[in-house]
Amino acid sequence: MAETNNWNDKVIAEFRANGGEVGGNFAGAPLLLLHSKGAKSGAERTNPMMYLQVDDGWAVFASYAGKDVNPAWYHNLMANPAATIEVGTDTIDVTARDLPADERAPIWAEQKRRYPGFADYETKTSRTIPVVLLNRR
Predict the structure, then answer these.
(1) How far, in Å, are 15, 29, 44, 82 from residue 88 at the CA level?
(2) Which of 5, 50, 65, 111 sits a CA distance of 20 to 30 A from 120?
């Protein structure tokens, strides 16, 4: 866990130092910082993640690199859907909504088309990878 937090901290610092742009695994990819509240603790958590712009919202993907469980940030958002995101240099209050299958399918397909690594994650797990839409509050 400490290794993940350290990696996230480096990505977050680079994101903020460069107006939302980072290198490494995220070079050239649309990236946002999600601020959510811990489901149990209520403590703020910040997670960098790729997104897909969907109309006026941002779709994020609970892929967890294909692990067989959803990431903690997903559980946090389902418990506390009011969140904040940083996109570029903007900070935006959002509400999270887990998309039902009919809304999820075209967005997930587009994300896999643009970033085939997400299709690889899907092959590593038997769970359906949730797609969460973040809309302005």
Answers:
(1) 8, 12, 20, 20
(2) 5
73 near 80, Cβ under 8 Å?
no
* Residue type at position 119: A
Half-sphere exposure of 126 (CA within 13 A, CB side): 0
- Rounded CA-CA distance 90/62 in Å is 23
Q: Assess whether pLDDT exceeds 80 at residue 76.
A: yes
Its sign, for the CA torsion 68, 30, 133, 84, is positive
Tokens 């690199």: give the residue: 65
In the numeric block, which tokens belong to residue 131?
């797609």
CB of 58 closer than 8 Å to CB of 133: yes
pTM of the predicted structure, to 2 decimals: 0.93
DSSP label at residue 66:
G
Q: Which residue has 């949730």 as its token pair?
A: 130
Q: Which amino acid, 53?
A: Q
| Element spanning 116, H or E | none
Name the 3-class secondary structure at 69. coil
